[in-house]
Structures are given as structure tokens and as C-alpha cells.
Amino acid sequence: MTLLSLNGLTKTFETPTGPVHAVSDVTLDVQAGECLAIVGESGSGKTTIANMILGILAATSGEITFDGQALSAKRSAEQRRRIQLVQQNPLSSLNPKRSIGASVRLGLDVYDIGEKSGRWGVVEDALDAVGLSGDMRTRAPASLSGGQRQRVSIARALACDPRFLVLDEPTSALDVLVQARVLRLLNDLRVVRGLTYIFITHDLAVVRNVADRVAVFQSGQLVELGETTQIFSAPQAAYTRQLIGAVPVVDAAELNLRNKLAEGV
Amino acid sequence: MIRTLRILAANPLSLLGLILVCLITLAAIFAPWIAPFPTHNGAVVDFLNNNRAPSARNWMGTDLVGRDIFSRILFAYQISLTLGVVVLAIAVPIGTMIGLLAGYIGGWLEMILMRIVDVFLSIPPLVLAIAMMGVLEPTLTNAMLAVTAMWWPWYARLVYSIARGEREEGYVLAAEVIGAGAGHIAFREILPNCLPAIITKMTLDMGFVIIIASSLSFLGLGVQPPTADLGSMVAEGARYLPDSWWLTVFPGLAILVAVFGFNLLGDGLRDVLGVDE
Amino acid sequence: MSILHIKDLHLGFKTLTGHVDVLHGIDLDIAAGEKVALVGESGSGKSVTARIVLGLLQETRTARISGTVQFDGQDINAMSARDRAGLRGTEMSMIFQDPTSALNPMFTIGNQFTEVLRRRDPKLSKAASHARATTLLDEVAIPDPARVLGAYPFQLSGGMNQRVMIAMALANTPKLLLADEPGTALDVSVQAQTLTLIRDLVEQNGTSVLFISHNLGVVREFADRVYVIYRGNIVEDGPTDALFANPQHAYTRALMSAVPRITGAGLPEVPEVSDDFLAPRISHGGAL
């Protein structure tokens, strides 16, 4: 079943030097329960697409449909609640002057979820669910490690009880051991809660192991879309091959595969 | 709070500032009880003892009508501090509000508000106050009004520049995605991040408000006789320099000590709270 | 002979509440022309090690440094601050993570080049420095050097600034180049080009490199030899091929198993942090 679809989505920014086509005529569907990776370098338009899905930016033309309903930037609270975000930088995504509990609770207050008196309990459960403990809710972000902060960001998104998460480079700023744990957590949450993900990243090795499908973007255009296994066995677009060719690898099997794919056999 | 004070006290200059500010505040509050001549704040005349040099009876001498200068300085501190607190209590919320709105909401609101701020900032403060006092009656209330009118734009600009930067932070985006209102984002998310800078500036400004208020009184536009005020005391005594030096030197020193204390404390707070200007 | 010889390097910081130990006796050697990587997670002590080699941390009042750091036979810890400063930008230089913020936005690239070149040769004329800079930019494959020399950093792309910084770092043909996560702030394809470029240039000049990174893949592609650092201790070291083919230390193995592979073995393992991570150092040899 299709949960989210982008139909001819276009975003043009007017600048003093002329219009910039950040996203040009993108059409794709995201199936309920899947993890779709959006891959591209700076200027590929991936963040602009995310911001349109989240309702932060209005599309210039084209439309977004979510669960059968048209979704514009001006959306109802209920529509907004269902799509949440986890950002890249766990340093800036939490307010340094608020306790992590207050940050997680925000969604509950905004959407008026549950009884007021029980909300701290819900916050503590949300922190427990991401592998932190509920009694950490009074702590300041500065007293947490990068991985813990990223878990708080995930808890904040989950507290709104969303169906769809936009993950914007959620592990790029983390060390490899921490990244492994956060990736597992995200994967478990998707299965247990029946969530759907758009996973924005430039790290193809991560994509290979977390995504069901991959959409490759270059200069605002969708250049390739396919099953992950297919992209990593027979990439079609030259740009996809170029990206795969740039992945740093750690073992011989990877090296062989990379060189084979990059040459476009 | 306790931690802030402890780090503050580790720096000798900040500690000195803290002590001076505390002493001045206590002196002002308890002036009626500490002052050797509590009645000398008002229209008292004692020609037997007028214009006396410092002595055991009058530590800082007496003025032209025989009032004890030390006592009058204590009472003058009362006025100076009240003036400072009232001015900041009005100017800071107004400036902060305008800065936050302009900085977070942006767009045409930013254009209009910040141009108004620019207009105020382009007029030299003392000139604006003198102009206002020329139109209004020279009373304490009007002095406060004049000083306030020229003070809020500085806070608007300070808060505006911080809010502009914070607006780009991830936590603001996070709150917007969740759908929090502009009020929540401005006051609950961004404002707490502006507070260290605001508190630091307020401390530094207490000193400046005292100087400006004294300057207005010196020009005869502020607090009116017979009420004791540091600025008017200096002005009255200036004609009798250098013979009756105590008439000007002690009130002048009193201004210096107050401004110095608040500045040291402000600088210390800036370091402790990690504010860059 | 060794360009950099580090023996039993300890580092601690004095804090308000007491004392924090950051490095617990690091041994590390770099031979002339050798590319050595120091790989570890954030907080492992890899960046402070670089700052000690550069002689920067020695100026920090709260830092307590002991042990030997010999650069080209001279003991860096025993030098005066002035002598240490004299080495930077001439005998040793540094490439940073984010090239755009490492260049001064107020000066043109050309002026910054002159500044760098005059550290070695104070009397160098403007014209001579311009000519030299043009050659250097040419070497890093910048198409229109004259235009770039007249430009300010913000007028150039991140990848272009990265090349400029590499050219500047190598301008005075230093004996040692320190590269702290070069290119991580850039796109993957630009990062790959950056690494190839640095490798080609240092091989051509015979420059030694201390390469600091948390990315095992990048390290494998760049370095001749690798040191793995964990919580201020070197836990494993050896020639890159040997170490990657046969990691022995529990921590190195944990790191390796956590790296996602493009061959697709599913989600990476999540190894538990264990006491074995603090086991003694394992060396595959290969050092001088």
C-alpha cells in the first residue's frame, strides 16, 4: 500500500541571480512500512524534498499525497503529527537550555495527547523505548553523549505517535560503534511500531544495509530508483556508479564489488 | 546559580565587583538606619556647620547648607539604584520582546521594527533625553521615562542578533516540525538562550544608567533639590573647586565606585555565562 | 630514520574539580615518507595527539604533558614556544576537516599564499610568491589559478577550498603533514578525490603524514600503517593490509564488525563494550 506519494514535485527558489531549480519534477511512491533511502550530495535537493514533506517549505508545483489525502505546507495538526523528523546534528537539534524531558514532551502538549497529568509518564516511557532511562528526563543535553542525544531526538519524534519518519542523516555525526546501535534501534522501532522511513544519507554502505529501496538524486532530479539489492548489483545511472565508486571500504569482498559496480559491467 | 557564583568568586576582579555591588545595594536599602544624619536627605539647614571639611563628625564633610555629605550619598544611592532598576525593568522586556519578534518571525515585521530601532539608536542618548526633558517637566519620573526611551533599543538589537542566529539551530526546526506556535518557539525555546547575554548586559547597564541619570541631574534636568542625587551634588559643588573639594570629590567617587562595581560584575558574568559580544 | 618519534606520551588536564587523564602512554613512529593513520572514536585522544605534535597544546596552561615527542630529531616538548611556532607552516603543516572555515575570509587566496610562503622565505617578493602559488595550484589540478588567487574563500566551492588548503599545506614542502579528518565536511566523491590528491602529492614530495580519522574505510585506502587508539591507549598497530586482513585486538574487531558493508551483510553487529577493549597493545610490526 502506498503511504506517501510525490507527484511532479518541484521547488524553485528565486534568487538575485535568477531562479534555482532545487527540486525538478520528482515523482515517487513510498510504501507503508518500507525504508526508502534518499541518496545524493550537496545540492541534490534531498533536504528540500524532506522540508516539503514535513511542511516546512511549500512546493512550487506538484503535489504530495499522504494516506490518500493531499498534503500542503498548510496542514492540519493531525496531518503534521503523523510525519516527524530526526535531524543529523544531535548537538544543535536539542535546545541546550531545556531539559531533554521538556524537549520530548513538546509534541504531547502541542497535539494535546493524553491527560496532562500523565504526560511526564509518557515522556519517561518514550525515553525508555529508545534505550535511555526515564529518570534522565531532567538532564540537560550537554550532559549526554552524541549517541544519547540522538536517541532523545528519536524519542521526541516518537512521542508524537507518528506513522512516518524523515531521518535526515541520523547517524552521520556518530562514531561507528554508536552508529551501529542507533541503526539497530531505528530498525527495531520500524518493525515494532509499523513505521515508514525516508532515510536521507550520503553513506551508501549504511543504505545497503538499512533500506528496502534507494532513490538517487542529482541536482534536484531523480536519476535512479530501485530495490536496494538491484542498485548494489546492477546500478543503471552513471551517477549512481560514481557514488558507489567513492565509498570507502574495509575488506576485499567490498573492494571487488565496488570496483566492479563503479566500472559499470 | 550556586555554581555560577562560585566560578565568579574565583576571579578576584569579579569578586570585587560582586562585593561592591552588594555593599552599595545594602547601603541604599538601609540608608535611613545607617546614615549618621537621616534627616539630611531633605530640606534641612544647619548653617552652624556648613561647608565643613571631612572630620570625625562628618566623614565626608558638609555641604553649603550644612548637610552631611556621607548621609546624602547613601540616600543618593537609593535614587540611583531605583532609577536603574526601574529603567531596566521597563526597557529590557520591551527591547527583548521587539528583538525576539524581529529576529524569529523576520519578514516585514523585522524590517519595520529594526528600522524603528535604528532611528532611536542614531540619536545620541543624552541629546534625546535632554530634548525630552525640555518638553516634559524635570522630575524624577520624567527622568526615568527619558532614560528608558533611549535604553530599550539596545536590548532589541542584542536580542535580535542572538535570535537571528538561534533561528537557524536544529532545535527551532524540530519545534516547527512538531508544530509548536511562534509564541512557544520565541519565548520558551529561543529566549532562554538569550538570557545569559541579557543578564550580563543588564549588570553592565546598571552602571551606565547611573552615569546617564547623574549627567541629567548635573545638567539640572533630573532629580530636583533638595532631594539628594549624586549628579546634582557634583554640579553644585563644582563651582567651589578646588577649595571645598569634598563637595564634588566624594559624590564623584560614589558614582565611580558604583559604575566600577557593576562593570566588574558584568564582565565576570559574561565570562562565566559564556556570552560573546 | 624517524620523522616523528613519540614515546610514552602522557597528557592530563587540570580541571576545576581535579584532574583528567587523556593519554596514557602513547608510542608512535612515522618514518620519512610514510603515511600513518591514527584511528579512533571521538574522545579517544587522537586529535589532542595531533595538537601536541603541532606544539599547540604545550601552550595550554591546564595541560600536563610528559614523555618524548621527537620531530626530525628535536624534542618538541623541550623547545621554546617560539621555536615550536617556527616549525609550524614550514617543517610541519596541517589540513583541517572544514576547509572553508580554516581559510581566512578576509583575505584573498593569493594573499594567504604569500603569507604562507613568507614563513619560509620572509623576503619573497609578491610576484615570486604569485608565480609559486600558481604552480602549486596547478599541481592540485585547479583549472584557472589566476582567478582563484584573486578570489576570497567564500567565492569558491568546498572542494576547491579543500584543494587550496592542500596546496597551502604543502607549499613549503614540509617534512610532516598532519591531516585531521580531511574532507569529512565534504561530499563523498569530493572526499575521495581529496584523498587521492593528498596521497599523490605527498608521495611525490616524500612528505610523511599523520592521518587522523574515525573512518576505517578512508584509513584503509590512504595509510601505509595504522595505529588504533582507544581511550588514550594504542591498542593495535601494524601495516594497513595486515591489520585489516587480520585484526587481533578486541576493540579493533569490534570497530570492524560495526562498519556497514556495501556487500550487504545486514545491519552491522553491535558489540558490547567489554574490558577486553583495554587489553594490552597488539603489534603487527612494520614500524622502524
What does it look like?
The complex is a heterotrimer of chains A (265), B (277) and C (288). With 265 residues, chain A is α/β, with parallel strands linked by helices. Chain A contains ten helices and ten strands. Chain A has helices at 46-54, 77-82, 100-110, 119-129, 146-159, 176-193, 204-210, 228-231, 238-245, 252-263; strands spanning 2-15, 18-31, 35-39, 61-66, 69-71, 83-86, 164-168, 196-201, 213-218, 221-227. The model of chain A has no long low-confidence stretch (mean pLDDT 92). Chain B has 277 residues and is an all-alpha fold. Chain B has helices at 2-10, 12-29, 31-34, 69-105, 107-122, 125-135, 140-166, 170-178, 182-218, 230-238, 246-273. Chain B starts with a helix and ends with a helix. Chain C is α/β, with parallel strands linked by helices. Helices cover 35% and strands 25% of the residues of chain C. Chain C has helices at 46-53, 81-87, 99-102, 109-120, 126-139, 145-149, 158-169, 188-205, 216-222, 240-245, 250-258; strands spanning 2-14, 19-31, 35-39, 63-71, 74-75, 92-95, 176-180, 208-213, 225-230, 233-239, 282-283. In chain C, helix 8 (188-205) links the parallel strand 7 (176-180) and strand 8 (208-213). The longest helix of chain C has 18 residues, at 188-205. Classes of the chains: A alpha/beta (265), B mainly alpha (277), C alpha/beta (288). At the A-C interface, helix 6, helix 7, helix 9 and helix 10 of A face helix 8, helix 9 and helix 11 of C.
